[in-house]
Specification:
Elements lengths: L1 H55 L5 H16 L5 H15 L3 H9 L3 H33 L2 H5 L20 H7 L1
Helix pairs in contact: 1-2, 1-5, 2-3, 4-5, 5-7
């Protein structure tokens, strides 16, 4: 009788430790999502800021400046539920303005333009990486949250279900070529 109780207590302790470890892992994944989202937000803000800087510098032709400025401004001012669309529109505006590699050269030849072109190239390159890190963390948390043990024992607590950040983040070819 005592041996059976000891084995039952050992089994319950092992199950409790396993569930605690799983809950801790899920908590670490949620923290990783928060950190990745903060990094993504920083990169998106940097890209929009550099795009606005280039648009207001007087280097580009007026039509390109207006298109780029309005898209960057909309991306910076977008509410959370409209953010993905606004950031995608900024990506499209960057591709439209810098579709021609000569446009990048025009920016580079202007005073301070070399630095602006370099910053814009880096920003356009870093946004897809930051989004990928964020979406990878979201995917890992989703896969863990789909397990029965997590649902049955409510190991996720009251944490909201993580959502991926889906946007068009393809950089302009002229800027992507410069990054290589």
């Amino acid at each position: 009788m005592t041996a059976t109780l000891i084995w039952i207590l050992v089994a319950l302790l092992a199950i409790g430790l396993y569930l605690s470890w799983t809950a801790g892992r899920l908590d670490r994944l949620h923290a990783r999502i928060d950190a990745a989202r903060a990094a993504l937000d920083a990169q998106l803000l940097r890209r929009a800021s550099v795009a606005q800087e280039v648009a207001t510098s007087g280097i580009l032709d007026p039509a390109a400046s207006i298109v780029l400025y309005e898209a960057a401004h909309a991306a910076r001012q977008a509410e959370e539920e409209q953010r993905e669309v606004a950031e995608s529109e900024l990506s499209q505006a960057l591709r439209a303005v810098f579709a021609d590699p000569r446009q990048v050269e025009v920016v580079r030849e202007a005073p301070g333009g070399d630095e602006a072109a370099r910053e814009l190239t880096e920003a356009a390159r870093r946004v897809p990486m930051a989004r990928r890190f964020h979406n990878d963390a979201v995917g890992a948390a989703r896969r863990l949250r789909e397990h029965r043990k997590v649902r049955w024992f409510r190991l996720a607590g009251h944490a909201p279900f993580p959502l991926a950040f889906e946007m068009d983040d393809e950089p302009p070819a002229a800027l992507a070529d410069r990054a290589a």
